[in-house]
Amino acid sequence: MSVTNANPALPADWRDFLALTKPRVMTLVVFTGLCGMLAAPVQIHPVLGFTAILCIALGAGAAGALNQWYEADLDAKMKRTQGRPLPAGRMERQSALHFGVWLAAFSLFLMYVAINLVATLILAVSILFYVFVYTIWLKRRTPQNIVIGGAAGAFPPLIGWAAATGSVATLPLLLFALIFLWTPPHFWALALFVKTDYANAGVPMLPVVAGERTTRIQIGLYTLPMIAAAAAPWPLGLTGMLYGLTAAVMSGIFLAMAVQVATRRSAPEDRMIPEKRLFKFSILYLFVLFGALVIDRWIG
């Protein structure tokens, strides 16, 4: 698991530690966690709410740091990750490990002391799942890494809801299912136009192991239950018309883009414009749906 580097690691600064937390990924994690909290039927004190979101952010950052600690050798082989602190030689692996462990421990301690046990347990499961199940067990062994590992990124709405209510309910479980089913088409769209990177690193992503055609079909197939999970809160009476119409419009666009990717013939990585559009839109998709959910619940 060590990364060979001819030069000793340079002293890391705060930007390197921030990079370990994967701040761009954390943005979506924090947003969905916040929306889960705001959509809950119980109002939480603003200070406690801020504390809970901080714990979610710290927990996500800890998982990202431990992921980079374990995958430093893979990151060194991939163009899009070679500039990270560890493969670039700006930080020792042991520093990343200690940072990730202490960040995880602090986030769980603070969540338990300031919020409640249920939210703490779900946060702990999310960190452990991402590190041990996805990063250590699945990532290097199976093309289903994203399918099963997608659960790790689906916990934030549950954590946010539990922070406010001390329990879980049908709506946050549906939000969990939505993110879980959204993850494969989102990441496989990315994997299609960076599959050479994954192949060079020896990561068994679906396009590398099963080929482009199978990946495209799977993107289309996973989009269907994802849309069902996105639409379900409205007919179940858990949300109002605003969310329902937003989910219908956004899901219709997502489906059209997914069908275009699924039915397209193979293309060079530098010409995969529909795949890149689907990847970018998939991020907007979650932001808009979760934002509409919160507004809808407030109106209701």
Query: Fraction of residues in helices?
Result: over 70%
What best-fitting shape do the alpha-carbon axes yield? Answer: flat
Q: Give the radius of gyration.
A: 19 Å
- Largest sheet: number of strands, sense, barrel closure: none
Tell me briefly what this model is:
The protein has helices at 14-20, 23-38, 46-70, 72-75, 93-114, 117-138, 145-149, 156-165, 170-193, 195-201, 206-209, 212-231, 241-262, 273-299.
Primary descriptors:
300 residues, mainly alpha, Tetracycline Repressor, domain 2, 2 domains, 14 helices, 72% helix, 0% strand
How would the blueprint of this fold be written?
Elements: H1 14-20, H2 23-38, H3 46-70, H4 72-75, H5 93-114, H6 117-138, H7 145-149, H8 156-165, H9 170-193, H10 195-201, H11 206-209, H12 212-231, H13 241-262, H14 273-299
Describe this structure in words.
The protein has 14 helices and no strands. By secondary structure, it is mainly α. The chain folds into 2 domains: 153 residues, Tetracycline Repressor, domain 2; 132 residues.
